[in-house]
Design goal:
heterodimer; A: alpha/beta; B: mainly alpha; 2 domains
Chain lengths: ~425, ~150
């Protein structure tokens, strides 16, 4: 295909030719001849046959955490005539930054030659990001012949919310279920901590026999252990539009989602089951389950919450009542900007759930963004928030979290206080 | 002069369109100024030299912009090898193209000089001259490109 430059040069040729005749000037005629000769000679730069290119994109993994970096590898194989000036551009969404290498190259590819280009990307926003399509352009150096085509080789990358590693604090449900976990229950069962002695029963394993006690009582005695069980934790993520404070770079929704991811990781590591309800653009939920696969399901759901919706905590009551197991621990993560939350949480408590509220402080986020803020307005907002938090403390565990600090710090403080009292 | 400044501005701002307009202004003003130059061998060589000089200047400035565009995206040293390869190959390609173009247009110009020595007396003679030169050029073009391409495709 002829390029725009080629058409311009052709127009210059015609104009020079006409000017030459009008002005009776041989100079313009020579100019016309010269440009025409360049156009004719440059015809050798045009592609002779159909381009046969095989383009493949690979990456080391398809899901990464926010602010992580991965290498993307593009391999291009030319199965047709040699291509001397092939420009390749891999389209990237705005959320992705290139750290190393480039997604834009100019290559020379001989017949059956394969070249690989690599670049490292940094993903700063969570969500499902689509890389591609790959735009290819053949352009001769004089820019007179251009061929463009697109390879719809797409790749989706899940950018999961950033999670913090909580090692020193565990969020454990008050009520345990029958399956084995890490929480010491009030019952005898499978575990590692000694509880009592009892008479030997024929089905008891030999390793359970307490030989010292057997020698003392002159009859076989067996050790009994405290049963270590696990429970169900349901994370409710408040993505209501009215409760989002901040801008695209820093907002309460991001903090809420990061907290949910951190808690899911920690609770699942503790062998409990985790369920999820997201009050986002639409109401999504995941039934409690455990394991690594379930963790990734939770993270994928969380990474998909990009903007808030209209759903309220009130709307989760029927889901909790109808689909989720009773006597679960409910962890509600919200900046608590709505005053009606208290009543709903009380209703949830009445249905034999124990409730924890984690609230990323919206005032801190707002203060980080807005430089000139009124001290009086800040004080009033703080008072409002304190009233809500105080009210909630009566029937739930409340964690007032500074999003600029690790969640572990605030949680540790609250859980230590709660265990003491 | 203004055209040259506009071209430099285009190069500085990295805008191909400004560069194109500047070059077009420069070339057209130059040729308009020397439109009444007498028609002889020496002047023909001078004009051909100037045409190809301007063309080469324009092409190299455009190449510079393209290389800058690619370089801007390159972070780290990956891909520098490919760019260097492109720079070397394209420079050779330009020189080859320009010499071939110069040869073909010189041939056309010579024919024009031989057909009529001195300034063109009238529009009709001039037209015949150009027609003749164009036919020669088309013949050259056909022998050099159309015929080989036809056989390649066969």
């Amino acid at each position: 295909m002829k390029s725009m430059t080629s058409f311009v040069l052709f127009a210059v040729t015609i104009t020079s030719f006409i000017l030459g005749i009008i002005l009776n000037s041989w100079v313009f005629l020579i100019l016309a001849i010269s440009i025409f000769s360049i156009l004719a000679v440059e015809n050798r730069g045009a592609l002779q046959e159909k381009v046969k290119l095989k383009v493949e994109r690979k990456s080391e993994k398809i899901s990464i955490y926010e602010n992580d970096e991965i290498w993307i590898e593009l391999s291009i194989k030319n199965e047709g005539e040699p291509l001397n000036y092939l420009e390749i551009f891999d389209s990237l969404p705005a959320e992705i930054d290139i750290v190393e290498g480039s997604n834009h190259h100019v290559l020379r590819l001989g017949e059956n030659e394969k070249k690989t280009i690599r670049y490292k990307i940094h993903c700063s926003r969570r969500g499902e990001l689509e890389i591609g399509p790959i735009k290819l352009r053949y352009r001769d150096p004089l820019d007179l012949h251009v061929e463009e085509w697109t390879s719809y080789e797409l790749m989706s990358i899940f950018v999961l919310p950033e999670i913090q590693n909580m090692r020193s604090v565990n969020v454990r449900p008050l009520y345990t279920k029958s399956w084995i976990g890490n929480i010491k229950s009030q019952r005898i069962g499978i575990g590692s901590e000694f509880f009592s002695l009892r008479e030997y029963m024929p089905e008891d394993a030999l390793k359970k026999i307490n030989w010292k006690a057997t020698a003392r009582f002159l009859e076989p005695m067996t050790n009994e252990f405290i049963g270590e069980k696990s429970g169900d934790v349901i994370l409710i993520v408040d993505g209501n539009r009215k409760n989002i404070v901040g801008n695209t770079e820093k907002n309460t929704l991001d903090s809420t989602i990061r907290a949910a991811g951190t808690l899911a990781s920690s609770i699942l590591r503790d062998r409990n089951r985790v369920g999820l309800i997201i009050l986002g653009d639409y109401l999504r939920w995941l039934y409690p389950a455990s394991g690594r696969e379930h963790f990734y399901k939770i993270m994928e759901e969380l990474s998909g919450v990009t903007e808030g919706g209209e759903w309220e905590l009130e709307d989760t009551k029927w889901i909790l009542r109808g689909f989720f197991p009773k006597r679960s621990m409910i962890v509600f993560i919200s900046p608590l900007l709505s005053k009606e939350i208290g009543k709903t949480l009380l209703d949830i408590c009445m249905e034999e759930h124990n409730v924890m509220v984690i609230s990323p402080d919206p005032l801190i986020i707002e203060k980080d963004i807005i430089e000139d803020h009124s001290a009086l307005a800040e004080k009033l907002s703080q008072l409002d928030r304190d009233v809500i938090l105080d009210k909630l403390t009566n029937y739930s565990l409340v964690v007032d979290w500074n999003p600029n600090e690790p969640l572990e710090v605030s949680l540790k403080e609250v859980i230590r206080y709660w265990r003491r009292h | 002069m203004t055209g040259g400044l506009v071209s430099i501005l285009g190069l500085y701002l990295e805008k191909t369109r400004i560069l194109d307009i500047g070059t077009l202004l420069l070339v057209s003003s130059f040729f308009f100024l020397i439109r009444d130059i007498p028609f002889n061998y020496l002047n023909l060589i001078f004009i051909l030299f100037m045409i190809f000089f301007f063309f080469e200047l324009w092409i190299f400035m455009k190449r510079e912009l393209f290389v800058k565009e690619i370089e801007k995206d390159l972070i780290g040293d990956e891909g520098i090898i490919y760019l260097e390869e492109y720079k070397n190959h394209s420079a050779r390609y330009y020189v080859k193209s320009l010499f071939m173009g110069l040869f073909v247009s010189a041939a056309g110009g010579m024919i024009a000089v031989h057909s009529f020595i001195g300034p063109f007396p009238s529009g009709f003679n001039l037209f015949l001259n150009v027609l003749f030169s164009s036919m020669v050029l088309f013949g050259l073009y056909s022998v050099m490109f159309l015929v080989p391409k036809y056989f390649i495709l066969k």
